[in-house]
Amino acid sequence: MQKNYTLGKLFGISVQIHYTWFLVFLLMVWSLSTEFFPINYPGMKSSYYVVISIVSALMLFISVLLHELSHSLTARRFKIKVGMITLFFFGGIAHISDDKLTAKSEFWMAIAGPAFSILFALLSWILFKLVMVFDFVFLEGGSIVLFFLFRLNLMLGIFNMFPGFPLDGGRVFRSIIWWVSGDLERATKYASKGGRIFAYILIGLGILEIVLLGSFGGLWFIVLGLFLRSIANQSYQQVLVKKVLEKLKIKDIMKTKFDYLVPEMNLSDVARKIARKSSIYYLVLEKKKLVGVLDINTFSNVKKKERKKTLVKDVMIRPEQTKGLHKDMNAFGSMTLLLKKNYLFIPVINKKAELVGIIEKRYVLDLIQGQLDLKK
Fold first, then answer.
1. Is residue 160 pLDDT above 90, yes or no?
2. What is the pLDDT of residues 223-235, one digit of tens each?
3. How many H helices and E strands in the chain?
4. 268 vs 276: CA distance, rounded Å
5. Residue 124: CA count within 13 A, CB half-sphere
6. Which of 32, 52, 73, 81 can bridge 97 by disulfide, Cβ–Cβ 3.0-4.6 Å?
7. Can you tell me the distance from the alpha carbon of 70 to that of 59, in angstroms, rounded to the nearest whole number?
8. Is the pLDDT of residue 1 over 50?
């Protein structure tokens, strides 16, 4: 299933929505049209409730989009690259590069979102009052939507300012500690703790609502709390990973000993060579240059009676990452590439384009985990 769908571009920034948006949109329309609006505004036709529920849900989505766009445009003012915006229903992620991130830029980027939500809530409130004061009967549905937007955006702005990762308030909190201490790792550690505390508060409130009120609406608090706790932990780990890898060079984490094959070798010879190995892939070299990769599953799918007449070059695949890295490059960039492209390995080459080593995902992940364990 495709996870994200591209809506288009705003100010040159690609905007995508996650596939779960459609499900949450339907659930919200159903909840608003059958419970919220009928309870708060009784006496209307059911079709009317459906219409204003659809409009309200779409307007809330637009306000979330503008919230994330405010983060992105502020980042651009600081000459920080913005890749794209991915939207869920009640929030989103602005994919912002942290290469040029400073305490000052993070503060203003983070506070821009809640500031927009509060201003949008204020605007909705003013328009709502104008409709009520001048008694625009024909805009009764509009007044209902405006009041709904006022409440939701006010809640969104206040909720986001809690000083804990990954909320905007957590980023503001981190930027202040970062500016005072000059230590990003320390700042992230405290902001992540704040995020976990807030997550446990939400989980506790959810449990109390279920136990004391008998309302399963508390499940939303529990799910949100668990999600925030997970992201808070990941945020701190990401900073630690970056700190570990930025101190290392490619040559510090590359493997220089590995099994390889040659293109003219037949698969019967390959079978004898790899009989006692457990690798899931084998490099194919020609004159010390990487020319392909033999996947163990591809090898296994060739029948035994056909292996003697089948050569490695007939079934190998040409790796996408043939360009390779140099051993004196920073290690952090290689790990980013491994995860972003989902590569199993990246070749390390010399000036003659000869293979001198490989950066293997399994090895680097084990190295990182060891460093994270030491930080516990």
1. no
2. 778 877 877 777 7
3. 14, 9
4. 14
5. 23
6. 81
7. 16
8. no
**68-73 contacts, C-beta under 8 A, 24 or more apart:** 68/92, 68/93, 68/94, 68/113, 69/10, 69/11, 69/13, 69/94, 70/112, 70/113, 70/115, 70/116, 71/96, 71/109, 71/110, 71/112, 71/113, 71/168, 72/11, 72/13, 72/96, 73/11, 73/112
Instruction: Please tell me the predicted confidence (pLDDT) of residue 120.
Output: 92
H/E stretch holding 169 reads helix 168-181
Q: How many CB atoms lie within 10 A of CB 204?
A: 14
Structure tokens at 205: 């409130």
The amino acid at residue 295 is: D
Query: Of 245, 242, 232, which is closest to residue 97 (Cα–Cα)?
Result: 242
Average pLDDT, integer, range 111-129: 91
* Section 120-133 average pLDDT: 86
Give the total residue count for the chain: 376
88 touches 25 (CB < 8 A): no
Strands 281-286 and 260-261: parallel
Q: What is the DSSP letter of 33?
A: I
Angle at 295 between CA 309 and CA 359, to 5 degrees: 135
Q: What's the whole-model pTM score?
A: 0.69
pLDDT of residue 166: 76
In angstroms, the CA 281 to CA 344 distance is 9
Q: Among 26, 58, 24, 56, which residue's Cα sits nearest to residue 41? A: 56
pLDDT in tens, 216-260: 667 777 877 887 787 777 777 777 777 777 777 888 878 888 778
CA nearest to 81, candidates 70, 96, 102, 66 = 96
Model confidence pLDDT, tens digit, residues 352-367: 878 888 877 777 777 6
Cis geometry, peptide bond prior to residue 166 (ω within 30 degrees of 0): yes
